[in-house]
Amino acid sequence: MRTTNIMPIKERRGVSTIMGTLIFIGILFTSVIPMMLVMKQADTIYEQGKLEIERYDEERDREEIDLYAYPTEGETSDNLTVKAQNRCELAVKIVRIWINDAIVSTDSVVQSMSELDLGSYDVEPSDGSTYDIKVTTERGRVFEAGSGTLSFIDGHWVVEDLMINVLISSSGVVFKIYVTGPSGYDEYAMVWKIGGSAFKSFDVTSPGVGTYNVIVKRGSKIIHDENVTMSWPSGPPVIWVYS
Amino acid sequence: MRAWGRMSDKRGVTPVISTIILSAVVIAVGGAVWSYSQGAATIIANDYVNGTMTLLNEVIERFTVEHVNNNSDGSILYVWIYNYGDVDIVVDVYANATGEAFNYTLENEVASNALVEVEVSFQATPLQQGQEVAIKAHSRRQNNAYYKYYAH
């Protein structure tokens, strides 16, 4: 008789334990685990977003645009031609052109290591006025025209100087630059690389328009030999040579 | 024997009732705990996701001061803010000129990929030609963009 009394007590305890366990497992699977999965998913989205924006920032930093502006049809032209040269590994989308405080919206894509004519713009120049040109890229970089400020004086477009700028980033420390051009123009300069690059500017206002030969030497070895043409006012007043 | 029989019958009914009652209590309490747990887990998960998304928006927010200009008498400073990020922003623009002239314009909304012109008034102390102005664009997500400008 005692034996038959003890058995039901054990069965009762078993039912409650099993039900409690089932509820606990139910809570675990329907509440806690989904909550943790959602949190994990949010973390994943956050990490992905952070990674994408880091990549975007890196691409933004790599953007390198040389911008040129010059009269479209000679020194009395009402229009300015704007040209962009992309010197980075990525395609760059230009979303705006600034001519002083006026905005021209565009969606021009300049492919890597190529040049693009961004158009000719009527600026209705008045005597004594000056023009600063710059462009904004989709990634938020702003590049100003390397040709500097253009002035319109006495019905003509004027720049202070015509320049050939040489920028050397090649390996080495000391470089010699030789620039020869029309009318016996012959200039020589020795430059030192400081902070990753060496820079030298040559004033070619005196010979003016013409073809110039730029040679860069490291020791006795020629590392760059290029002919460039200065054609101001039909072209930019500043020419950049990269070595 | 009769007495024992009656007793064992009574004990046979009580365990069934107690089992039912105990099971009912377990189900009731367990159900309440389950329901509470689900609600709490949902709220905790939502809060966590919202917090993470807020933090993400703070991290991916991108804007710059693209251009600055002033009018001819120097009484208004024009600041162009370009939002090149993927989220809309609200920006406060502060302009601090030499000579303790400090002005600002608050709550400027700039949509993603939009350019907005913000006017900062310098009516009380107009900007002079060549005067240096330090500009700070401060977003409500605590990011900043800076620009140095010389009045003309």
Give short descriptive properties of this protein.
heterodimer; A: 243 residues; alpha+beta; Immunoglobulin-like; 3 domains; four-stranded antiparallel sheet; 1 helix; elongated; B: 152 residues; three-stranded antiparallel sheet; 7 strands; disordered N terminus
CATH superfamily of the largest domain in chain B: Immunoglobulins
Which architecture of the largest domain in chain A would the CATH scheme give at its second level? Sandwich
What strand order characterises the main sheet of chain A? 4-3-7-8
Largest sheet of chain B: 4 strands, antiparallel
Number of strands of chain B: 7
Biggest interface between chains: A-B, 40 and 41 residues
Q: Please give the order of strands in the largest beta sheet of chain B.
A: 4-3-6-7
Average of the residue pLDDT scores of chain B: 90
Separation of the first and last Cα atoms of chain B: 118 Å
- The CATH topology name of the largest domain in chain B reads Immunoglobulin-like
The CATH C-level name of the largest domain in chain B is Mainly Beta
Secondary-structure element pattern of chain B, one letter each: HEEEEEEE
What fraction, in percent, of the residue positions of chain A are helical? 25-40%
The residue-averaged pLDDT of chain A reads 89
Number of helices of chain B: 1
Distance, first to last CA of chain A: 106 Å
Poorly predicted ranges of chain A (pLDDT <50, ≥5 residues)? none
Helix content of chain B: 25-40%
Q: Determine the number of helices of chain A (DSSP H or I, runs of at least 4 residues).
A: 1
Major sheet size, sense and barrel closure of chain A: 4 strands, antiparallel
Radius of gyration based on Cα positions of chain B: 34 Å
Fold and architecture overview:
The complex is a heterodimer of chains A (about 240) and B (about 150). Chain A is of the alpha+beta class and about 240 residues long. Chain A has 3 domains: about 1-60; about 65-160, Immunoglobulin-like (Sandwich), CATH 2.60.40; about 160-243, Immunoglobulins (Immunoglobulin-like, Sandwich). Helices cover about 25% and strands about 45% of the residues of chain A. Chain A contains 1 helix and 17 strands. Chain A has one helix at about 1-60, and strands spanning about 65-70, 80-85, 90-100, 100-110, 115-120, 130, 135, 140-145, 150-155, 155-160, 165-170, 175-180, 185-190, 200-205, 210-220, 220-230, 240. In chain A, the strands form 5 sheets. Chain A has a 4-stranded antiparallel sheet, with no helix packed on it. A 4-stranded antiparallel sheet of chain A has the order 13-12-15-16, with no helix packed on it. The longest helix of chain A has about 60 residues, at about 1-60. The mean pLDDT of chain A is about 90. Chain B is of the alpha+beta class. Chain B has 2 domains: about 1-60; about 60-150, Immunoglobulin-like, CATH 2.60.40.10. Chain B is about 40% helix and about 40% strand. Chain B has 1 helix and 7 strands; from the N terminus they run αβββββββ. Chain B has one helix at about 1-60; strands spanning about 65-70, 75-85, 90-95, 100-110, 115-120, 130-140, 145-150. In chain B, a hairpin with a 5-residue loop joins β1 (about 65-70) and β2 (about 75-85). The model of chain B is unreliable at about 1-5 (pLDDT under 50). The interface between A and B is large, with 40 and 41 residues.
